[in-house]
Design a protein that fits this description.
This protein is mainly α and 191 residues long. 61% of the residues lie in helices and 0% in strands. The protein is elongated, with a radius of gyration of 24 Å.
Length: 191
């Protein structure tokens, strides 16, 4: 017998139900989780929400039909699932689906957030490099050779910097993609 007595509220959605359900499905979480988080945020209580219902970024919501699945776990296993999904910034359903799909960033214990942060940092460095090249081009057009020489070291390492960025970006993107995905297979077969 279930001794847990949750608080229930019935709400007239006045035409918003379809959009709410679609949004929850796209985020791969239940309507209840989505509504609780929205209400907590509105009440300024988001920080005090139980950790089991927070954190829900989408792994690439499937267009396939979804089913609700009930599973039995020990308390320790449920806590580990919740902690893993929080660390990945995903709903429990999306996290579990990612584990099943074999997404390396989830299965190897690598922090998805850290991987995305590393990719963002690498992109920012590449953007900075692009601005420097534009500045160098302007100086050369103006025939200002003395100021252009400041960029010489950057040009000497440019090839390696770009290669390093592309290698890192490719590895990070691969870690965020399910193993054996069709995009990966297509990429390999086109070589």
């Amino acid at each position: 017998m279930n001794t847990h007595n949750p608080d229930f509220v019935t709400v007239d959605m006045r035409g918003l139900k379809a959009a709410l359900v679609a949004h929850a499905q796209a985020r791969r979480e239940s309507v209840s989780v989505l509504v609780r988080r929205a209400v907590a945020r509105e009440l300024g209580l988001a920080e005090s929400l139980p950790q089991l219902i927070t954190g829900s970024e989408n792994i690439g919501a499937s267009r396939l039909s979804q089913v609700k699945l009930s599973i039995r776990l020990t308390t320790a296993e449920a806590e580990q699932l919740a902690a893993g999904s929080r660390a990945a910034g995903l709903s429990r359903g999306a996290y579990l689906a990612g584990l099943i799909a074999g997404i390396p960033a989830l299965t190897t214990g690598a922090s998805r957030t850290e991987l995305l942060s590393a990719l963002t940092t690498s992109n920012a460095q590449l953007s900075s490099l692009s601005r420097n090249i534009h500045a160098l081009t302007r100086l050369l057009i103006q025939s200002n050779v003395q100021k252009a020489l400041v960029y010489r070291d950057m040009l000497d390492t440019l090839d390696g910097d770009i290669h390093r960025h592309l290698t890192q970006a490719a590895a990070l993107m691969a870690d965020l993609r399910p193993r054996g995905s069709s995009a990966d297979t297509t990429h390999r077969s086109s070589r």
